[in-house]
Amino acid sequence: MRTRIFQVDAFTTTRFAGNPAAIMPLEDFLPDPTLQAIAAENNLAETAFLVPQNGDYRLRWFTPATEVPLCGHATLASAAVVMERIEPTRTHVIFHSASGPLPVTRNGAGYVMDFPSRPSEPVAPPPQLAEALGAIPIEVLENDFNYMAVLADARQLRAVAPDMAALIRIGKPGYIVTAPSDDPQYDFLSRYFAPIKGIPEDPVTGSAHCMLAPYWANRLGKTQLTAFQASPRGGKIICRLVNDRVELEGECVFYLEGEVEI
What we know:
Elements (H helix, E strand, L loop, with lengths): L1 E9 L8 E7 L6 H11 L3 E8 L2 E7 L4 E2 L3 H15 L5 E6 L2 E8 L2 E7 L4 E2 L6 H5 L5 E4 L3 E5 L3 H6 L4 H7 L3 E7 L7 E7 L4 E4 L6 H12 L3 E6 L5 E8 L2 E6 L1 E10 L1
Parallel strand pairs: 2-3, 4-6, 11-12, 13-15
Antiparallel strand pairs: 1-2, 1-18, 3-4, 4-5, 6-7, 7-8, 8-17, 9-10, 10-11, 12-13, 13-14, 15-16, 16-17
């Protein structure tokens, strides 16, 4: 069996920046062990599998280690594949996923994704968290998906070098660190670590901004924010809070197009 594959750098206008995702259109989903093996072979933060469904698409995301319920950058990359390669006359698509319907609309050179908000609550910091991050948060928040450690400034955020084994022992699926931006073109900065999912540091994480956007909107008193994920690759995300949804806007660059044999 041969099938198409695309590798797309998401949340960037520059090749070799942003977050790379593999996108694979299929006629139907293959068995889960096969999908997982393909994702491990691709060895990117996420591989997205697309299957047509009544004019829309079903969408699933796999890291090299596990399936995940939501992935922003691979959804953005999937929208680019659908609207620039598979059906280039389209300007809107709905992806049906484990997180519900995810509408994506083309907006000039970029795409606007409509995602569920993931609010969080302040919590007492887990005793091991500061040591695992190598930084002392001024505040820690939590939801079912992540701990979020708020740091005092951008310098501390850029210096974070977590002990990945220690993060795995704490046991949360993901860890966000965030701080006010020291660059006036951005409202806040973040980084994201998910070693338990096989992703030591994710370059740019759309789903994390479903938690980041409500926090910073409340803190800064604004519903549109411009964010930068300060990983080594880096990426820009425009966030808009709309009731219980978060719009995430970004651009993509195609890197690879070809076929794989399964």
